[in-house]
Specification:
With 271 residues, this protein is mostly helical. It has helices at residues 6-25, 37-40, 46-63, 75-82, 90-103, 121-145, 148-166, 170-186, 191-203, 205-214, 218-233, 237-249, 251-258; strands at residues 106-109, 113-116. It folds into two domains: 6-116, Winged helix-like DNA-binding domain superfamily/Winged helix DNA-binding domain (Arc Repressor Mutant, subunit A, Orthogonal Bundle), CATH 1.10.10.10; 121-267, GntR ligand-binding domain-like (Four Helix Bundle (Hemerythrin (Met), subunit A)), CATH 1.20.120. The protein has 13 helices and two strands. Helix 1 crosses helix 3 (46-63), helix 6 crosses helix 8 and helix 7 (148-166) runs antiparallel to helix 8. Bound molecules: zinc ion (ZN). Zinc ion is lined by residues 177, 181, 225, 247, 271. Residues 177, 181, 225, 247, 271 line the site of zinc ion.
Length: 271
């Protein structure tokens, strides 16, 4: 697997992501990590900031299979791996692992410590189905509720994603792509939807990137995003809902097949 120089890009994008969410929540947040629902409850102090950054770096390592499923996350090993990117100690590391456990990316096993989660195929398919439904609903609401400025910001992120596509930088593409989906959901202004989407999306984070790497019709996914942006810009709720639901929905079953054979590899989740 390729390993683009992700974490730096990740942090930069994550700051934008956090800023976007903070604007929606109407509160100031200077955090630098990729905050999710679980992380947002942590607040904004320095220790929390460090925890968020550590969680963000480990999350990216899990996503890129630098830490594959079932890897035992020993503190010493993690501190060594993190050492290149951030100065941290055991306490923020432990807190970061709790955050990742609440997202479902890490399992905390009594007497054994933390292990990278390995959700089974049916769990993944179940989550994909719900996520596709939520994305469709979000499209419908966002097309009606997004401000002109929010649509402009989504368009700008879309063009950054296109640039990543053209330079064949899959990890940056993935990050911008995630940001677009998160911004769309944030524009619904439905806090329950934002919260549930955030949790499910975190759990599927690694799977989505994996799908992205395998996807042989990457260009098709980019074209779907073009259509989505156009639907948003003309505020076509039903149209955007259909595009988003199918962007995820039809692939939920195929992901399970692709895990066991090459036949469905080209139908993977590519968003
Ligand atoms: Zn997408």
């Amino acid at each position: 697997m390729e390993r683009p120089d992700g974490p730096e890009i990740g942090l930069e994008l994550d700051r934008a992501s956090v800023a976007a969410r903070s604007a929606i929540a109407g509160k100031k947040n200077l955090a630098g990590g990729d905050a999710t629902g679980a992380e947002r409850v942590l607040g904004g102090g320095n220790e929390e900031l460090l925890t968020r950054k550590v969680a963000s770096i480990i999350r990216d390592m899990i996503v890129q299979d630098i830490l594959p499923p079932n890897t035992k996350l020993r503190e010493k090993m993690l501190l060594e791996k993190l050492g290149d990117q951030i100065a941290t100690s055991r306490t923020p590391l432990r807190e970061a692992l709790k955050v990742l456990a609440s997202e479902g990316l890490v399992r905390l096993v009594p007497n054994k410590g933390a292990v990278v989660a390995d959700p089974d195929i049916s769990e993944i398919a179940d989550m994909q189905l719900i996520l596709s439904t939520l994305e469709g609903l979000a499209g419908d609401l966002a097309a009606r509720r997004a401000t002109g400025q929010e649509i402009g910001e989504i368009a700008a992120t879309h063009h950054e994603m296109l640039a990543a596509f053209h330079r064949n930088d899959r990890f940056a593409y993935f990050k911008f792509n995630q940001l677009i989906h998160k911004k769309l959901v944030a524009a619904t202004r439905n806090s329950a939807l934002i919260d549930i989407h955030d949790k499910l999306n975190s759990r599927l984070y690694r799977i989505r990137y994996k799908g992205n790497l395998r996807h042989q019709e990457w260009k098709e996914a980019v074209e779907e995003h073009e259509l989505m942006l156009q639907a948003l810009q003309r505020r076509d709720g039903p149209g955007l809902a259909l595009l988003l639901a199918s962007h995820f929905g039809e692939r939920s079953e195929l992901i399970s097949l692709s895990d066991h054979g090459p036949t469905a590899a080209d139908a993977d989740e590519s968003s």
